[in-house]
Design brief:
Elements: H1 2-7, H2 25-44, E1 73-75, E2 89-95, E3 100-107, H3 110-115, H4 120-134, E4 141-146, H5 153-167, H6 176-179
Antiparallel strand pairs: 1-4, 2-3, 2-4
Length: 186
């Protein structure tokens, strides 16, 4: 059967996961410390200010004014919560044990279209939590939302991109070259 599937370039509908090598406790602690160090620096460093005689008022969507750790926290499985299903937002996946901002995302409809289906970040979170628990480390997964985002998608994507660069959230692909992808799929 396998040769028949290869002949037609088809794959079986199921996938057998191979056990993957567990990140050592020491490697995990060092990885988390690198992320934490950068994010604390971003949190505690004043952004450069460009001044002029006619400065426009600061925008409510100013990425420097958004502190994911100061937002109201919700269950990590926010996509199951009714109040987050139909609103546009920038959302953050946080491990509040340290805290670490792990993922920044934007969406038109938080739950139904984006997260109820397949989303790689769900796998990263699951693998991250499992790795921490196997090593006896505290993990407190939660989510936070910035609902006051630009209505047009281009503006939200721009804001999301700036936030990903500022916080260097390790589950976003833009930061895999810095932190690797230790919790991704095999």
């Amino acid at each position: 059967m396998r040769k028949q599937l290869e002949l037609f370039n088809l794959r079986p509908a199921y996938r057998v996961e191979q056990p993957k090598e567990l990140m050592s406790k020491d490697a995990l602690l060092k990885w988390k410390a690198r992320v934490f160090k950068h994010q604390q620096r971003a949190l505690n460093t004043e952004p450069p200010q460009q001044t002029s005689l006619f400065d426009p008022p600061r925008s409510h969507c100013d990425s420097d004014a958004i502190n994911p750790f100061a937002l109201k926290l919700h269950n990590a499985k926010f996509y199951r919560m009714k109040e987050h299903q139909e609103r546009i937002c920038i959302y953050f996946i946080i491990d509040n044990a340290l805290p670490l901002l792990l993922y920044v995302g934007e969406t038109m409809q938080t739950a139904k279209q984006r997260w109820n289906g397949t989303h790689d970040c769900k796998d990263y979170v699951m693998n991250y939590v499992e790795t921490n628990r196997k090593h006896g480390l505290d993990v407190k997964m939660c989510s936070a939302f910035w609902h006051d985002t630009p209505e047009n998608r281009t503006g939200r994507l721009r804001l999301e991109s700036v936030l990903i660069k500022r916080w260097q959230s390790p589950f976003n692909k833009e930061n895999w070259n810095k932190y690797g992808k230790p919790f991704g799929k095999i």
